[in-house]
Amino acid sequence: MPKTTISVIKADVGSFPGHSRTHPKLLEKAAKMLKEQRGRLLIDSFVTHCGDDLELIMTHTHGVDNEDVHRLAWEVFMECTKIAKSMKLYGAGQDMLSDAFSGNVRGLGPGVAEMEFEERGSDPVLIFMADKTEPGAWNFFLYKIFADPFNTSGLVIDPAMHEGFIFEVHDVIKKRRITFKCPEETYTLLSYIGACSRYVIKYVFRKDGIIAASTSTEKLNLTAGRYVGKDDPVMIVRAQSGLPSVGEVIEPFCTPTIVAGWMRGSHHGPFMPVGVCDANMTRFDGPPRCICLGFQICNGKLIGPADMFDDVAFDRVRARCNELADMIRDQGPFEPHRLSLEEMEYTTLPGIEKQFRDRWEPIGE
Ligand code: F6R
Ligand code: MG
Ligand code: MG
Questions:
Q1: DSSP 8-state assignment for residue 357
Q2: I need a surface site. Which of 27, 47, 291, 294 has the fewest CB within 10 A?
């Protein structure tokens, strides 16, 4: 049996109204284009959206970074951009930073999370998709899932997990990577990944080398060199049988974390787990949200999805996120609701500073 690859590739190619949700016509077109490739390039596919981001979930046997799979995703986004433009949807084609495909969508605008693995007897996979935030938003959750015994009881109880996990961390500013073994290097891992805007967990492996998680780390504004919106990351996590259970993987989402993004990619706000029916941005273009679809992988087939956060068990965290949203919104344009000046460099604020540059006068020592 060849190895199975899961590729989750996403882009914002236009939405309505404003940046709130993807239009059904785009979802239909994307689903149709991927379906046509089933039994050819792909084994299976599923299309959904989180806010204004169009999410392509694809399975195949061609490994990660495959040119044909990436080209297919690129063509889907291009065709959907055409539809978005014809309807004058907002931000039509916004994440397509190039007119030409060059072998891989990485660096061209879309976000990518992929993993290749040998299917186990039964392989549950959870796919997380977020809007109005940045890739580092997953750091907290990946730490909790794979390194915190207070979240994941399997780290204590299950001999197959007892040795711990290896985290590959990317420095998205200096474009370099490093790995940390946990639990041995937990404190060092935290010293980096607590700075979510720069250090992003890309992969998690079990100590025997089995891949457990993969995320998208593309930073749109760094790629484009100008403000294009937030990166709105995706993440694939495998569960069960010597990996954290499905319940352990989604448990950390009961904690309301504060992430960067929200309005104009310029504000901190609560990260709210929601069902797909609530994955539409409203209040202050948010609040930042994430969805989670659960599948069983069967010879590359996607059995599912189950809409994991469409559940009363997550009502409490949503209520707490709404309270936090009220509290932080009261601060209006003041930090820490607004991002730090360093992070605001990648927003539209420098345009204001430019206008007033010559009005400043020296005040001496
Ligand atoms: C955030 C986002 C929106 C826009 C905001 C302003 O990622 O996409 O919050 O930044 O709606 O959009 P413009 O400048 O296009 O009017
Ligand atoms: Mg948008
Ligand atoms: Mg978005």
A1: G
A2: 27
